[in-house]
Sequence to fold (190 residues):
Amino acid sequence: MEEKLPDKKAAALKAALELISEQGFHGTPMSQIAQRANVGVGTIYRYFSGKEDLINALYIDVKSRLARYTLHNYAESMAVHESFILLLRNIVDYFRANPQELLFMEQYANSPLITADSHEEGLRMFEPVTNMFKRAREENLLKELPMEMLSTLAYGATISLVKLCLSGEVKFEEATLDAGVDAIWDAIKK
Fold:
């Protein structure tokens, strides 16, 4: 069952996401987050020990929503290719619907502000995706490259596809997006 955040904590996380996506970490004081969340600064400090703690909580919050959406309709019994297409297409759809979260993750996923514990928790959330890549390797479906490289190539291409969609320069039919995701599979398969 999904944990229900207290309204004020959720408001602070939402405000932080909006402001940090617009202004960055250093350009967003806690007082501004409190004002946008319509809570007192002291209330924020009840939930977070400081701005770095808030960033880590926001990272886990965003990562958990992304993981839930990415894994929607996924079953480990699915064929690898079918799994890959579903998982990457879910990522595309999620970030198209949540561009602020994409901006946040782009800025902070590899930031020194995110603690090792937060990174580990984020990885645990995506363990089924990691297992799908391992299964693809065991079935001899992937190019002979390190797993980290293969997953980075796939994720990077997926994020680039999302950014192209969000740019508004080109409107893609759903079938074209599906073909784009399949092309990403073609880039890493044998």
